[in-house]
Structure formats: C-alpha cells, structure tokens
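Deliverable D4.2, example record:
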Amino acid sequence: MKKYFTIGLMLVLISLITFNVLAEDKIVIKHMEPGDDAKLGYVHEFADSYMAKNPNVEIEIIEVGWGNIYQKMMSMAQAGTMPDVVYVGSRWIPVLAEMDAIQPLDNFMTDDKINDYSNSLLNTANYKGNQYGLPRAYSTKTLFYRTDLIDNPPETWDELVKVAKEVQENNEGMYGMGISGAKHVSTTSQFFNYLFQAGGKVFNEAGEPVLNSKEGVKALQFYVDLYREHKVTPNPVEYNREELPTLFSTGKIGMFVCGPWGKSIIGREPENEETPYQTALLPKGEYRKSILVSDSYVMAKDAGEEVWDYLNYITNYNNQTYYDYEYGSVPVMKEASESSKFQHDKFFKTFLDTIETGEPQPLPIVWETFEDIVTDAIQSALMGDMSPQAALDKAVEQIKAENIAPVK
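Output generated by the structure prediction step:
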C-alpha cells in the first residue's frame, strides 16, 4: 500500500512540475486597445484566432476607453510597463518615440508588408524617417443623414442649416443635427472639418499657430451658431462624436458627422425600416474638405519577434479587410481600397470619394496639451463664455506659450 502511495505521489509531483514548466514556457503578449464594445469584439476575435493557431501564446487584452487611454498609456510608459502592442492615434507617435517607449518596425516589415499600404498612409505613422506604427484604421468623415426625412442631403453650410431646421420642424422631439463639444479626443477633429472647409489652417508654413485667422473665427462661429443661434442641435458639450450615432439611431437627431465606424455604433445597415440612412460628402463652406486621420499599432521597445508575429497576423490582408468592412474603416490597404467590395458599396464609396479633398490632421509634437487648449476654446465659445475670436486668440497665445509646433 505504501509502495502504491509513493508511486502515486511521484506521479502527482511529475504532473505538477510538467504543468509549471509548460506554464513558464507560455508566451504572454499584452495588447492595449481603446474603443467601443463593437470594436473590442473584433480585437478579441482576432486574438482568439491567433491563440487557437498558437497554443503556446496567451494574448491579454487590456481594454480602455478613448477618454483615458493616453493618460494610462503614458503612465505605463514612464513606469517601464508599456504593453507589447498598443493601438494609438498616430498623432501620439512622436512623443512615444521621444520617450523611447516604442521601437521602429523597419526591421520587422517585409517589402510585401510595406507595399500593402500607400506611402501617404505609412507617413502618418513615420517619425524622423523611422516607421514606428503599422496603420490599423484610416478615416475620412461624411454626413450621415436620414433618407426617410431628407430627400437631398445639404451641399453647403447654408443648406445644412436649412435642412436641419426643416427636419426639426417636421419631427417633434428631434433635433436636425448633432455636433460634439465634450472634453474628448474627437472634438478637435470635428471642429477641424469646418476649419478646413472655411479655408483655415492650424499652423502656417512657418509652424506658427494661426487658428485665430479670419477663416478660423468664421469656422468656429458657424459651429457655435448651429447650437446658440439656429438651435438645431442638442447641447454639444454633453456629447462626444462617438455618442452621436446612438442619438441618431434612437431618433433624437437627423444628421451627424462621423467616420465609417458610425455604422457599427448605429447597429443597423443603411437600408433598415426604423432609421434608414446614407452618407454624403460634407457640406462645403468655401471648400469641400474633410479631416484625414489614422490610427496605428505600435510595439513596446523591448517587444520581440513573437510580438511582431501576432501583430503581423492581426493586420494581414484578410483580417484587416474584414475589420475595415465589418467594423467600419476606410480600407487601409491599397488592394482593398480598389476592390469592388468597397468601390461598389454606396456607404463606403462616399468615404473613399472624400479622400481626394481630404486634409491631413495637424501633427503637433505634443498632441495632448494642444488638444486640451483647442477643446477649451471650442467649449468656451459653445457655452457663450467667450466669443469665437477671443477663444481662438487665447488658444493661440497658449499654444505659443507651450512652444507647441508641428512635427518637421
């Protein structure tokens, strides 16, 4: 009996040792991703697929909201605990590179991988000649509008006001338009659509801030007037851009401006019975313009080949194109953008057509401080605390005081 007990104990010990060795051999990759539930669902889907093919790898997804990812990411970078893979706004790459928190991907990317993307898109994640980011999302902005309420989408700013008022007058309890003004990463880019349409710029060719030009003031005045004078939008300060599709889907607003992921947040295809909709080019001011924005994946400075293998997998052609189409992103890969899948889809075609007249997002070396200054100016004007001119004058003074200039 003692003999059998001893043998049994030895088998248990061997099993425990084997388990510990296997556990120690398991590769853990930490992946931080911001976004809504729909977006995060695809992230988990890709991670699960990769783990099924690579049972020795465990992918730990760190979910975080867009409102606090920058602060959390920076705290982890400063503490030396940067996740292996992080989804970032490409605008954050310069500061992360200067901190030595991320590494260039040039030694990992093959020629085939590089050729998947246009040079202009790769450049949004390139800093000082090094490719620090792998493009994951690319967006233009269009006007989402209710096709059962609006026969012809507005072509100009004046028509936008006119159509918004008509929608509001004919549909009790509904605002004609929704705009954003909350303290959120998207508020600056929403305003910049109108800035570019007015012919304004954020920085001039010398790198000096010129938000308070007559064009800049005209753009902010129009943005403010939608709320304070025309009263065709609910209080913008209460909403960020990603909340507008929900207002739209619940019948609270008749139009809003967003990227293609707006469809996922609405939760319905354009042809639906409850809230049928479609997209149109943004109404023009002096010009027809839309901001162009990209997001990228970056790798922590100490991440190795096993991390690249995972990143390369989730961004391969099939996975990337699936993500672009199902979640909603202007296709980032050249072949996909030219395919009939996107070109013959009326919803996506509008976003592709917008690229031609798009204006790249400004790239100040320190984005977050810049964003806070501009958002404060927008909010001050929206709330009536300052005139658009005074708000933008103050913003320019603050940008100069902080020595914020565009990346060269």
